[in-house]
Amino acid sequence: MSNGWCTIESDPAVFTEMLEKFGVEGVAVEEVISLDPSSLEQLGTLHGLVLLFKYKGSKREVNYQPESGLYFAQQIVQNACATQALINIVMNRKDDGVTLGTTLQEFFDFTSGLDPATRGEQIGQSDKIREVHNSFTRSTVFSFEDVAAKDDDDVYHFVSFIFKHGAIWELDGLQPAPILCTNATDDDWRDKMITSVQSRIAEISAQDTTGQGQGISFSLLGVVADRIPALELELALLQSEEKPTTLVEAQLEQLRQEREQGRIENSRRRHNYVPMVVALLRALAEKGKLEGIIEEVKQKKAAQAQAGGKK
């Protein structure tokens, strides 16, 4: 955790519940497996994409557009990029089927007239936003808040891509303004977004110092219209018309189960397992089994190291 903000895992269940805690309605986050038109089409209404990648910090030649008319907040607080990636998307979609909820609507009203850097500062000073963000921290017995990152440490960063005002935009909180990727229309913006993201991935991959494509990793999430309310509405309509509902009921049940499983996984992420592990180790020690287990593990490690050295 840095400056009171923890790192966030790139997981659709984490991002979906984060939006729910902010009070955002009608939105969910799903993993994007493949960057092709059919995959994006299956997502339904797409509000934006969130790209996670290993950050190298190199300079870029890009088309900054300070007067884009977009809502854009710079990242002033370290580790806040995941939350800012989501905020930068939903703030620009509040008139397109996204209900911000009280927290983000009030934040939008307060910061809409500010410059990107000041908006970023206000995110850092928002107790509610920080509270929601940090509710997804993984529990640990130690705090490394004051430990400085090494030059060779892996640092990951989130950026957003949206379609608005006839263009595809990259919203990177580490940059001073929105980046114009390419112009687009209502007919071709999905294809243009795919091309823009692919271009960004290729640009990042070119920074790979291993020369074998192993130095960079990516994750892509789609911020989409929540399908559960739509299916609930469709189910109610079918029932009122006394039409078959089996298929819709099955789809709805599957989504509800997936959503609940995501909440369970999030709860597990937050749970502190350290006391349980300590109690287990203490019990093994009291029974005289701990030293034997440790010695067995050491022998296995030594055997693996020896086998690896013979290759």
From TrEMBL:
Site (Important for enzyme activity): D172
Reaction equations catalysed: Thiol-dependent hydrolysis of ester, thioester, amide, peptide and isopeptide bonds formed by the C-terminal Gly of ubiquitin (a 76-residue protein attached to proteins as an intracellular targeting signal)
Gene3D superfamilies: Peptidase C12, ubiquitin carboxyl-terminal hydrolase (3.40.532.10)
Catalytic residue positions: C81 (nucleophile), H157 (proton donor)
UCH catalytic domain sequence ranges: 4-225
SUPFAM superfamilies with a match to the protein in the record: Cysteine proteinases
EC number: 3.4.19.12
Keywords from the UniProt entry: Hydrolase, Protease, Thiol protease, Ubl conjugation pathway
GO molecular function: cysteine-type deubiquitinase activity
Classification via InterPro entries: Papain-like_cys_pep_sf, Peptidase_C12_UCH, Peptidase_C12_UCH_sf, Ubiquitinyl_hydrolase_UCH37, UCH_C
Enzyme class: hydrolase
One cellular component term from this protein's GO annotations in UniProt: cytoplasm
Record site feature (Transition state stabilizer), residues: Q75
Single GO BP term: protein deubiquitination
Family: Belongs to the peptidase C12 family.
Name this polypeptide is given: Ubiquitin carboxyl-terminal hydrolase
Origin species: Bodo saltans (Flagellated protozoan)
